[in-house]
């Protein structure tokens, strides 16, 4: 089956460095015109030269040159062997879960995105998949959660929104000793900050909507794989289920990855400065950010991350105090999502994690006074002034 789709398979990194790969990986000038930017192939089908003879593409659900360029680009960026573009991050997660069958068990990071929890609990349990949620920052908890039926370890690191970290190398070694595949949702970090495959993971998931696109104007998802059996199945399921990323969205993400290193450097710098500012503010109860020495896994962050990412969370002491701040920001946008050039501020308990039962939210540290901040690339002084004036009203 692999030979049917040779354009999906890319070599692992040669001597090119990360910034160069982001711009050139998976892409060549358009052969018909020399255009340096990959065209948007907005087509549903392809004319065959003669019966049974085509130019590598037959039908747009199965393959599209713009999507192929993006898939090659993302595979190279993450250091994988192949990548697959999907209509959303949740579609990408759903595709990975089709590697399993009824009766299989999955160990999952307990503090994960609410939409992933909803998919697992309210959809996939209907198909006899079983899930155990564990604090995967503790390798002993992973060990205790593993059963003879465990087939997958699903990690989110840093977690959304509590920014808890999992030791990817340690967790991968542990899982592989039990014959368990490891998937990492790398959306929060981006491949600039963290490359899970380098630490032993088997699969990486992204919502390309976030840092990879970076401009809040596209929705998409991706899976990056290294194992041939995973690549073969994902090739099949992407075509069979058809939840593909469209050519326009693929093109937008390709535009985004070209500036990923530049944007992430600013995200990292601004987020660290905002975390330090908030940690020192008398009206803020506490701040969670891997770049702060106060973070319990700060040392791990220094080992497996390059910079500490653009996300932070902080507590205001009560939901009413949080509401006052959220309703009074001016430059920052009160909105779901993350990873765009603009700063977004949100209330996880009523927005991104509303699908998670209240008692469970408390168990995993999502309190009603928690605020999540996706720090953009604006001028840092403007961001401080905006949140400062909102804090003055608390």
Summarize the structure.
This protein has helices spanning 18-24, 65-78, 89-97, 114-122, 139-145, 168-177, 228-241, 247-258, 260-279, 298-304, 319-326, 358-363, 380-392; strands spanning 82-86, 105-109, 130-134, 150-156, 181-185, 203-207, 221-225, 286-288, 311-315, 333-334, 344-346, 370-374. With 394 residues, it is α/β, with parallel strands linked by helices.
List the helices and strands and how they pair.
Layout lengths: L17 H7 L40 H14 L3 E5 L2 H9 L7 E5 L4 H9 L7 E5 L4 H7 L4 E7 L11 H10 L3 E5 L17 E5 L13 E5 L2 H14 L5 H12 L1 H20 L6 E3 L9 H7 L6 E5 L3 H8 L6 E2 L9 E3 L11 H6 L6 E5 L5 H13 L2
Parallel strand pairs: 2-3, 2-4, 4-5, 5-6, 10-11
Antiparallel strand pairs: 1-7, 6-7, 8-9, 9-12, 11-12
Helix pairs in contact: 1-2, 2-8
Molecular structure report:
This protein has 394 residues and is α/β, with parallel strands linked by helices. The protein has 2 domains: 257 residues, Aspartate Aminotransferase, domain 2 (3-Layer(aba) Sandwich), CATH 3.40.640; 132 residues, Aspartate Aminotransferase, domain 1 (Alpha-Beta Complex), CATH 3.90.1150. The protein is 35% helix and 14% strand. It has a 7-stranded mixed β-sheet, with helices on both faces. The protein has a 5-stranded mixed β-sheet with strand order 8-9-12-11-10. Helix 1 runs antiparallel to helix 2 and helix 2 packs parallel to helix 8. The longest helix is centred in the C-terminal third of the chain and has 20 residues. It starts with 17 loop residues before the first helix and ends with a helix. The relative contact order is 0.13.
């Amino acid at each position: 089956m692999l030979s049917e789709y040779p354009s999906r398979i890319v070599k692992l990194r040669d001597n090119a460095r990360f910034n160069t790969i982001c711009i050139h990986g998976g892409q060549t000038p358009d052969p018909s015109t020399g255009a340096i930017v990959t065209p948007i192939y907005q087509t549903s089908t392809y004319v065959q030269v003669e019966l049974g003879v085509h130019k590598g593409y037959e039908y747009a659900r199965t393959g599209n040159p713009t999507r192929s360029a993006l898939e090659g680009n993302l595979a190279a960026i993450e250091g994988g062997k192949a990548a697959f573009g999907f209509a959303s991050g949740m579609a990408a997660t759903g595709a990975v879960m089709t590697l399993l069958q009824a009766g299989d068990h999955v160990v999952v990071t307990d503090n994960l995105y609410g939409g992933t929890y909803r998919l697992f609990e309210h959809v996939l349990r209907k198909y006899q998949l079983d899930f155990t949620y564990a604090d995967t920052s503790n390798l002993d908890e992973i060990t205790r959660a593993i059963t003879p039926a465990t087939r997958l370890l699903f990690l989110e690191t840093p977690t959304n929104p509590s920014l808890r970290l999992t030791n990817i190398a340690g967790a991968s070694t542990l899982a592989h000793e039990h014959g368990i595949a490891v998937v990492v949702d790398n959306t929060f970090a981006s491949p600039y900050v963290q490359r899970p495959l380098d630490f032993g993971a088997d699969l990486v998931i992204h919502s390309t909507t976030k840092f990879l696109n970076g401009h809040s104007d596209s929705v998409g998802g991706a899976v990056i794989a290294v194992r041939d059996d995973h690549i073969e199945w994902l090739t099949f399921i992407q075509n069979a289920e058809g939840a593909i990323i469209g050519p326009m969205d693929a093109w937008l993400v390709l535009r985004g990855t070209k500036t990923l290193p530049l944007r992430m450097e600013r995200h990292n710098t601004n987020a660290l400065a905002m975390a330090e500012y908030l940690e020192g503010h008398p009206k803020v109860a506490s701040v969670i950010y891997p770049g702060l020495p106060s973070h319990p896994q700060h040392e791990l962050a220094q080992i497996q991350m390059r910079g500490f990412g653009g996300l932070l969370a902080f507590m205001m002491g009560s939901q009413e105090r949080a509401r006052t701040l959220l309703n009074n920001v001016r430059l920052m946008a009160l909105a779901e999502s993350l990873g765009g050039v603009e700063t977004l501020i949100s209330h996880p308990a009523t927005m991104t994690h509303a699908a998670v039962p209240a008692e469970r939210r408390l168990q995993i540290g999502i309190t009603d006074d928690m605020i999540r901040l996706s720090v953009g690339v604006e001028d840092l002084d403007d961001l401080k002034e905006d949140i400062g004036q909102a804090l003055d009203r608390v």
